[in-house]
Amino acid sequence: MNALAALDVALRLARGVVRAMPARVRKSLDDRFFGAVFQVTRVTNDAYGHKPPPPGNG
Question: Could you report how far apart the first and last alpha carbons of the chain are, in Å?
Answer without folding.
Answer: 56
